[in-house]
Amino acid sequence: MTDSKYFTTTKKGEIFELKAELNSDKKEKKKEAVKKVIASMTVGKDVSALFPDVVNCMQTDNLELKKLVYLYLMNYAKSQPDMAIMAVNTFVKDCEDLNPLIRALAVRTMGCIRVDKITEYLCEPLRKCLKDEDPYVRKTAAVCVAKLHDINAQLVEDQGFLDTLKDLISDSNPMVVANAVAALSEIAESHPNSNLLDLNPQTINKLLTALNECTEWGQIFILDCLANYSPRDDRESQSICERVTPRLSHANSAVVLSAVKVLMKFMEMLPKDLDYYGTLLKKLAPPLVTLLSAEPELQYVALRNINLIVQRRPEILKHEMKVFFVKYNDPIYVKLEKLDIMIRLASQANIAQVLAELKEYATEVDVDFVRKAVRAIGRCAIKVEQSAERCVSTLLDLIQTKVNYVVQEAIVVIKDIFRKYPNKYESVIATLCEHLESLDEPEARAAMIWIVGEYAERIDNADELLESFLEGFHDESTQVQLQLLTAIVKLFLKKPTETQELVQQVLSLATQDSDNPDLRDRGYIYWRLLSTDPVAAKEVVLAEKPLISEETDLIEPTLLEELICHIGTLASVYHKPPSAFVEGSRGVQHKRLTSSAGSGESVESPDTGSAAVSEAPPTVIPSQGDLLGDLLNLDLTPPTSTGPPPTTAPGMQLGAMDLLGGGLDSLLGGDIGGSPAMGTGFGAPPAAMPASFNAPISGGLDDLFDLGGGGGLTMGTYIPPKSVWLPAMKAKGLEISGTFVRRSGVIQMEMTLNNKAMSVMSDFAIQFNRNSFGLAPAGPLQILTPISPNQSIEAALPLSTVGPVMKMEPLNNLQVAVKNNIDVFYFSCQYPISMLFLEDGKMERQVFLATWKDIPNENESQFQIKDCHLNSDAASNKLQGSNIFTIAKRTVEGQDMLYQSMKLTNGIWVLAELRVQAGNPNYTISLKCRAPEVSQCVFQNYETVLKN
Amino acid sequence: MIHSLFLINSSGDIFLEKHWKSVVSRSVCDYFFEAQERATEPENVPPVIPTPHHYLISVLRHRIYFVAVIQSEVPPLFVIEFLHRVVDTFQDYFGVCTEAAIKDNVVVVYELLEEMLDNGFPLATESNILKELIKPPTILRTMVNTITGSTNVGEQLPTGQLSVVPWRRTGVKYTNNEAYFDVVEEIDAIIDKSGSTITAEIQGVIDACVKLTGMPDLTLSFMNPRLLDDVSFHPCVRFKRWEAERILSFIPPDGNFRLLSYHVSSQNLVAIPVYVKHNISFREGSSQGRFDLTLGPKQTMGKSVEAVLVSSQLPRGVLTANLNPSQGTYTFDPVTKMLTWDVGKINPQKLPSLKGTMSLQAGASKPDENPTINIQLKIQQMAISGLKVNRLDMYGEKYKPFKGIKYMTKAGKFQVRT
After folding, report:
1. Residue B6 C-alpha, separation from nearest chain A C-alpha, in angstroms
2. Least confident of A31-45, A298-312, A470-484
3. Which residue of B has its CA nearest to A400?
4. What is the mean pLDDT of residues B297-308?
5. In what order do the strands lie in the sheet with A776-777?
6. pLDDT tens digit sequence for A267-301
7. Pairwise CB contact (< 8 Å): A175 & B162
8. Which residues on adjacent β-strands are paired with residue B279?
């Protein structure tokens, strides 16, 4: 007597038979018939024709029959909306039943019937159930609000259900709280800015209390909700962390990972020197390790998240390398993830162990895994310099195994090692050449050809080797053809006498017999280079190559931060920003880690390396000539209008801004791991724009007059000379150098954009990452004409200080993204903090005295300025140019004490005491400020201003 | 939240579907089938598969794929944990979780799934509560139901559903009150060629079978609780008490449950119970290979090692193996190349060995890969980490329960590289 009997059919026709049974007088027969209907439904058969007959069975005291009918209704009501109305009365009646189980069941089922007409009738019963005396009913009703919202959002808002739902967060029963949070979170997903989950310390406290008592699933909802909260200060985040930590010992891995997310996020707020911070770091490792002993699919999700965690905080798992060692019967998707994390954790301390493991893996059966293991050895060599030699010898051992795909993979990575450590391991070339014959994969062939070409002078028979490749030139893949062309040209430049014939052969093959435009173009370029100026050719082709970067597969820091806030989600599994994600999430708020204000903790990229490294600080001491030029330039520029920036060609500007409009995140997210997106306008430069471009440079003369009023020897604002921010090498030919100036209260970023590429650049746009003082472009970047090759253009970008704020390390660091028709480039630069000193930064004497006393002594920092040969008046004048105002001067025992004040754009006052002793070139400066982090920057600014 | 669930058998048929929101066409599973085709082994199907409009999250249990469909951002672990719970519940209800058992009980399955999730939100997943809502099928009850027409759906709201101890129902009554605890430890280890340990860790669990009347409050203390620094508890365990006193204090669920799982990773605490001497080699140019394996006890603290089973995936080129076991029996599957040797008990006086030759395909070259040896074993009455329960006390009830504690050590993923 099993349920499989329900699947058997009779000849007469199943539906007909069932219909008769459903209308039977016998209760038992009816129930059996409904069961048959449900059974057919589960296997996907269409039994919707029986709708009226099934609904007729609804009025019953038998709970099982009722449940079965409800099951049926949920499935088919949508297809029979008119008939579904028939069921409404029974629902409404059931919502008043004495048995809470039936009340809950009714409200639950009604919510699942996705028919507009029914939802109208649902409102009243739902309102009652939300206030039901029985928590089981309330908790079911909470979910029902989410269901109803999905069907008719407007109705839910109009009926005030959202407010009732919010009230349920304060319910006495933890299960109700959990379900209310879950429902609100789901609703909030479709209203990103509705502020539905208004988290304040009181609600947080309620959630934390409910967290301890609700079911495991409720804990997940609450933890995910907590992760959205931004604590006011480090004490609050510590107390939340303390109350969340016990969840790390939960048996449900989803609870554990959600707890990890909350802790990883709130940890940012804690000062690093706090004891608790260290304790917390230690507590995070064991639960993560335990996740790895679970079922493989859990392991996979855990590993993807651990991959993020080790990039953000490598210290948590740095001693746990061994748990990532691969077991031979792990599923392939677990193996590959473990391997990835092993490389991330590889360091000088554990490299020997790691290499021994990787070598072991390279002899496994699974080809994909073996290849990745060999590649991993190469990545270790590049990451841990001390291990390079050992890695190379391991790779050579592997080559000796003569396993075809191992050899090919090894050659590909050895090429990378050569690029990283030139002129170090070339002794192995001979061994590599022995395996030339066995290479049949394009990537390996190309790598080998590159090696032969690059080291042609050390390989006696290089010409023979390359010639052998040339025989089947047309059958090779493009990658190999291009590489072969370059290699032979290199060989020719190194050994011109013997290889003339060879080079002619390859050039004609490439230019005359090939259909591939890339190959033809490259062939022609070489040909012309060689025929017009062999010396130049040598310089171009044999130029020193930039070293390859340490780790190429790191996640971009801002994306990483966002992903850390989304640990445990699909986004974290795919390492993609949540916004570019599942269809259902219509608008996701970008989450960021916020760091504590009081600690020295940085939100910047982890130490392991980042794409945005400032090239040269803009505070380099300039040569006198440059400075003069700068000053002249400034002073002699006629005071053009400082009014609104020119508004020509707004179309282009708007278009460009639109592309950037999604914010840095979407830009960064869009292109991860992908090939560099070649811009759309490439090769088709827009028509020349009217040359009405006026650089909005404010009148330097005005400034001069302004300052001149103060004293005799004013030097004017100090402007650091332009320094290269973005080298052409890193930006496909675009070089940007620039500096910052402040004129008449307007901060400007002055840039020189130099096109060193071969093609026209256009469609420029710029964006800043959040920074310490909220600097943001006040308008779009005004570059109206495309920059042709070798042309450079000056641009001035007015800045505002009302942008989003995030603390940077160093404080005056600014991360910039510049887009053009070719790609998006990132660089970071540092602005002198004096850009932010306001013109009204002169404090009243009395206020100064009071403030100086008021600021606690631990906020005072003292610095020495060495080798400064100005007297106190000259210094005072010079500083005034940078809006550092001298309030009073005292002379004590031959020592001049200058009391100075300045005010930052964000309203922070900095007070200074500068001691100048006649004849002593060393100044002493004491700085006092309520935000002592700025002192270092201010001091540096003093130093640069005084010395220039 | 979780949108739909599809159950797929090993031959690729969808034999059950359940939708908690709107109906998702089963054609969405085509993406799953594609991934399945790409994976060489059934267990290599990736657990998360993206499709244009949905995400498929799957687990493979008892040769059935449980494929959940989600549409919005849902924590994947949440879905996977839920699927595990579904599997456990089926097993609990039907004894086995097979396609036949599910088909035989399709209506109960449907009722269960409906009770476990509401609109994709978990509703009741504790087996105690489910059993009150939907009675598990037994032969007797099926008979009675057929005759009397009564149902297997509970009419009352489960008592535990909303209490502070949702895992326990009230009014539990037993004539024999008993509480048994099994401390089971599994050793996961990788041993390298030369016999030295590369990694070794212990996954331990304490499984309980508690049949006690009323609302007992138990405490369990250990002789050496310091061993347990990485633990996951059943929700019933009071965490504060553990933090402060290192005592497990809890009101147990009724019946079988996992009280605690723990992880011992520091290598000096992990004893390796057996050693393997091996020589598996092929000579260049010869179609014969040597196979020579000897097992011996290592750190067993005087206990005997039982139920030893050695298995190894031999290289693909091996055609036959002609071996001679000193005890037990061996099999070699020429298709999968899996060698299994059922050793039984290890006698320290007379070490078990398996020796002989393997023959390769004529003309085949020497295999590249080195086979890994997998070992299963059992040691009774000992937890290899040395964990010992000190005492078990009961409060809140007057009767005297019968208490029992059993220790056992097993090999988990115990691998020896050759």
Report:
1. 10
2. A31-45
3. B368
4. 87
5. A723-726, A734-743, A746-755, A792-800, A776-777
6. 888 888 888 898 999 899 989 998 988 889 999 99
7. yes
8. B292
Task: Give A634→chain B minimum CA distance, Å.
Answer: 55
**Mean pLDDT for the stretch of residues B84-110:** 89
Q: Which chain B residues in 25-64 lie under 8 Å from chain A, judged by CB atoms? A: 26, 39-41, 43-44, 46-48, 50, 53, 55, 57-59
Mutation choice for B interface testing from A365, A368, A398, A589 by most B CBs within 10 A: A365
Mean predicted confidence (pLDDT) in A915-937: 82
| Residue B265 phi, psi (nearest 5) | -115, -15
CB contact under 8 A, B231 and A250: no
Q: Which of residues 243-262 of B touch A (CB under 8 A)?
A: 243, 258, 261
CB-based contact, B78 to chain A, within 8 Å: yes
pLDDT at site A8 = 56
Mean pLDDT of chain A: 78
CA distances for A294 relative to A334, A592, B81, B232, angstroms: 12, 30, 11, 12
> What is the band of B33 on the pLDDT scale with cuts at 50, 70, 90?
very high
Extract the tokens encoding A60: 């019953």
Dihedral of CA atoms A259, A262, A266, A268 in degrees, nearest 10, equals 90
pLDDT in tens, A682-719: 333 333 333 333 434 433 334 433 443 333 334 456 77
What letter would DSSP give residue A907?
A: S
Is the CB of residue B381 less than 8 Å from the CB of residue B407? Answer: yes
Q: What is the DSSP string of A833-852?
A: GGGGB-TT-PPPHHHHHHHH
* Tens-place pLDDT, residues A520-535: 999 998 888 888 888 8
Question: What's the angle, vertex CA A440, arms to CA A357 and CA A499, rounded to 5?
Answer: 115
- Please report the ipTM that was assigned to this predicted complex: 0.84
Cα A163 to Cα A741: distance, rounded to the nearest angstrom: 51
Rounded to two decimals, what is the model's pTM? Answer: 0.68
Q: How many Å apart are CA A262 and CA A564, to the nearest integer?
A: 9
Render the burial of A620-654: b for 16+ CB within 10 Å, e for the rest.
eebeeeebeebbeebeeeeeeeeeebbebbeebbe
Q: CB A570: neighbour CB atoms within 10 A?
A: 25
Q: In the structure, what pLDDT confidence band is assigned to residue A259 with cuts at 50, 70 and 90? A: very high
CB B220 within 8 Å of CB B400: no
B108 interfacial to chain A (CB closer than 8 Å)? yes
**φ/ψ of residue A2, rounded to 5:** -120, 170
How many percent of chain A have pLDDT more than 90?
A: 9
Whether residue B75 has a cis bond before it, omega within 30° of 0:
no
Return the pLDDT at A822: 80
Q: Under an 8 A CB cutoff, do A403 and B81 touch?
A: no
| CA distance to partner chain A, nearest, from residue B176 (Å) | 30
Give the highest mean pLDDT range of A544-548, A765-769, B175-179: B175-179
CA–CA gap between residue A823 and residue A764 (Å, rounded): 10
A734-743 and A746-755 strand pairing: antiparallel
Q: What is the mean pLDDT of residues B169-191?
A: 89
Q: Which two tokens stand for residue A104?
A: 């809950």
CA distances from A916 to A693, A823, A857, A899, A937 (A): 47, 51, 22, 11, 20
The answer to whether B284 faces chain A, any CB pair under 8 Å, is no
CB contact under 8 A, A6 and B14: no
Query: Residues A560, A550: contact at Cβ < 8 Å?
Result: no
Whose tokens are 């057929």? That residue is: B146
Residue A590's region, left for phi above 0, alpha for psi from -120 to 50, else beta, is: beta
- pLDDT tens by residue, B192-216: 888 888 888 899 999 999 999 988 9
